[in-house]
Amino acid sequence: MPLFVENLTRHGHLSIDEETRQLLLQMSPATIGRLLVGERKRYVLHGISHTRSTPLGGRIPIQTCMDPPLDIPGVLSVDLVGHDGGQAVDDFNWTLTVTDQTTGWTEAGAVRTKAEIYVVAALESCLRRYPGRVLSLHADNGSEFMNGHLVRFCHTHDITLTRSRPYHKNDNAHVKEKNNSIVRKFVGYDRHDTQEEVDLLNRLYSSLHLLVNWFLPSQKLLHKVRTGSHITKVYDRAQTPCARMLARKDVSEETKQQLRSTRAELDLASLHHEILHCQEQLDEMAKRRQPLMIKKRGNYAYIIREFTA
Fold it and tell me: What is the pTM of this model?
């Protein structure tokens, strides 16, 4: 809240008296959550899984949620989110999500399909925006990650590649949480399956890159305390990924200066308007598309897609 109020006031988008400003700054997270409970219910939706395993996974080391975490920036988790609209037929667009397990820094990129050449190209684009050196990548057992193309990419860039155990989503919990709080929250569950929508999604993600990493705080789990059958989770103070990077001693001063400069130039309200504009365009494209219809004739199925004028 202090970060939002300061930014909106500095750029002239918020004009409030001192009494109202103090009330905003004193508002507790519980009060904010209670006031927003109606809005958050609008996003309670569910998707479907598309992960398909591959034999190559047996040659890539496993890292589980029970292994001690590496408390250094550059340990990234990756995952794909499908924009199938609830009908996983024909080709449709995907979003690659990349998350730093230590700082919560998150990048996203849209791809036409989950072919390995598209996925690695989107991964390269995401890593170029990441402010630091990448040490490792952690993925699930899907064929879009467990393939020779990604293995060669990691070997060329001196990146360690690890994988989750099959059917254990908690092994990749850091990025899966971002799939919901970022991709599903800002994009939703509509079907997107054209190159035009891929370009629009990437335009949206270029703005989300700034909003999520410089303005949206999150909490990290510090430890768990078990009392009988009850488990109490202890979290740290909510911070933005940018603030976590600035607080690290193992991040170079040059990188920190770039983060501070970018933060000083950002206009939160203009950023929000750009995101809303992209969302409206995506929503309009989804409304124009009629639901996919599958017609069967003998042993064959025909997929019919229609667009309204």
Answer: 0.77
Asked whether the beta carbons of 108 and 123 are under 8 A apart, the reply is no
The whole-angstrom separation of Cα 302 and Cα 295 is: 5
Q: Assess if residue 238 is contained within a domain.
A: yes
Q: Which residues, other chains included, contact 85 with Cβ-Cβ below 8 Å and sequence gap of 6+?
A: 92, 189, 190, 191, 192, 286, 291, 292
List Cα–Cα distances, 132 to 95, 200, 255, in angstroms.
22, 27, 7
DSSP-based three-state secondary structure for 101: coil
Is 104 found in the same domain as 23?
Answer: no
Residue 49's pLDDT is 55
Give me 254's structure tokens.
């040059």
| Enclosing domain of residue 1 | 1-44
Find the Cα–Cα–Cα–Cα dihedral 149, 152, 158, 159, rounded to 10°: 30
305 has a pLDDT exceeding 60: no
20-34, 58-72, 281-295 — most confident range: 20-34
Would you state the pLDDT for residue 23?
87
